[in-house]
């Protein structure tokens, strides 16, 4: 029986495209319709793994992913995948630019293609959709007057023409996805990343003291971010990624020292880091 990989549906979204790329035929793909439900499915053993977006190079972190991983599910990050986002203007088969009366998509792609919309379609109305896939379906079912902004996967799924490829304002747009599993990875590659989440007592120097542990152990910190805790105004949870694996002695002992100075601590996983091209 093939292993199952959960992803944030529906089909034709960039999350679906990332799942297809990473799975590469090794998993049966299963779609879920909310981030908490997707990650909880791994925790409950409904699916062997999930691929979830965690940060975008333009929009920043995906807060629902961070919150669920840190506070709501007992799972680990075991890998990562970088998806390069290419927004495309899609139309019904045979439709032309002059036929377009409405352009629809999820609000993010609409915003990321604002120059295209302003310069080439200034008189065309835009409308937000629940997802890029829903917009593509509407385009496929229309009379040619509706276009959408979406992925190559959406074009293939709904039989659409790519009228203008790679039409986003920025061409370096990428999303980092992480692979989530019930058990932590014990695979050490020599090019790894470790992710943690923690809270600190609200006192002067608390965060400085925590970060000083990494500097003192010559550990390179590649990301730090704070998110507000939901139960108390003014209290925050910190997310940190560092280079190295928990099985590296300097990483292990630095994290053990950090754990002793935190109010809440969660090891999110050590996994192979993927280079951004």
From TrEMBL:
Catalysed transformations (reactions): prephenate + H(+) = 3-phenylpyruvate + CO2 + H2O
Claim: Lyase is one of the keywords in the record: yes
Pathway entry: Amino-acid biosynthesis; L-phenylalanine biosynthesis; phenylpyruvate from prephenate: step 1/1
GO cellular component: cytoplasm
InterPro entries: ACT-like_dom_sf, ACT_dom, Preph_deHydtase, Preph_deHydtase_CS
Prephenate dehydratase domain span: 4-182
EC number of this enzyme: 4.2.1.51
Amino-acid biosynthesis as UniProt keyword: yes
Domain ACT: 195-272
PROSITE patterns: ACT, PREPHENATE_DEHYDR_1, PREPHENATE_DEHYDR_3
Keywords on record: Amino-acid biosynthesis, Aromatic amino acid biosynthesis, Lyase, Phenylalanine biosynthesis
GO biological process, one term: L-phenylalanine biosynthetic process
Membrane-spanning segments: none
Any one GO MF annotation of this record: prephenate dehydratase activity
Name assigned to this protein: Prephenate dehydratase
